[in-house]
Design brief:
The chain has 2 helices and no strands. By secondary structure, the protein is an all-alpha fold. The chain is elongated, with a radius of gyration of 17 Å.
């Protein structure tokens, strides 16, 4: 994977995780506390962390797959 593909993959994951975590924090605060407030800090933090980790694991898996093909 080149840098552009990695960046596009990260941005897609970041957006998806950010939206889902914002919805989850809204529903949690609405159900548990009775106020529909989104915790933007948690949503952003979770999106950054999971975006980096999942992108890194995806790149490692693709590299591992290519190395396995070269050995055969």
């Amino acid at each position: 994977m080149n840098i552009k593909q990695i960046f596009v993959y990260f941005i897609g994951l970041f957006a998806l995780i950010f939206v889902v975590s914002a919805i989850v924090t809204f529903l949690y605060s609405f159900i548990v506390h009775g106020t529909g407030i989104v915790d933007w800090e948690t949503a952003f933090r979770l999106a950054i962390i999971l975006g980096i980790v999942l992108t890194w694991t995806n790149v490692r898996e693709k590299k591992k797959g290519k190395e396995g093909e070269n050995k055969e």
